[in-house]
Structure to design on (145 residues):
């Protein structure tokens, strides 16, 4: 998603709640992320590969995994393979796109069938902007009260 009105800071660091509302446009196939997840081998921890390069699993990804672990009632350890059709870390919301794609892939893998709103809240734990990337088109993220 490309933010047209950005959020400027968090009023709650744990829940990643913004101080102000923001508005973005999801770019669909023009700028996209493809993420697959598969169950990690027994006894193995979660692994992460982005555009063919291995990375350590960040605290943001661990927060998303913890949310799904709480929902399914057991620890979730997966192999994550993600790729972008646009440059990573170039200011084009690759982390938001990647975390939203991860949440959608985990929902499918685990069969949780969560609502888009609930998936958006989980994606927000990884990246504030990821909550907007769950939805297509124009998206308003309300600051709420």
């Amino acid at each position: 998603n490309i933010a047209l009105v950005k959020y400027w800071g968090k009023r709650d660091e744990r829940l990643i709640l913004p101080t102000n509302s923001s508005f973005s446009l999801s770019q669909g196939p023009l700028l996209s992320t493809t993420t697959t997840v598969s169950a990690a081998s027994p006894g193995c921890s979660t692994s992460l590969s982005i555009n063919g390069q291995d990375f350590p699993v960040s605290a943001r990804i661990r927060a998303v995994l913890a949310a799904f672990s709480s929902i399914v009632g057991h620890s979730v350890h997966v192999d994550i393979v993600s790729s972008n059709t646009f440059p990573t870390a170039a200011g084009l919301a690759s982390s938001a796109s990647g975390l939203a794609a991860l949440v959608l892939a985990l929902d499918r893998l685990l069969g949780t069938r969560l609502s888009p709103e609930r998936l958006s809240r989980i994606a927000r734990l990884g990246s504030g902007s990821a909550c907007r990337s769950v939805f297509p088109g124009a998206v308003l993220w309300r600051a709420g009260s």
Summary: The chain has a mean pLDDT of 84.
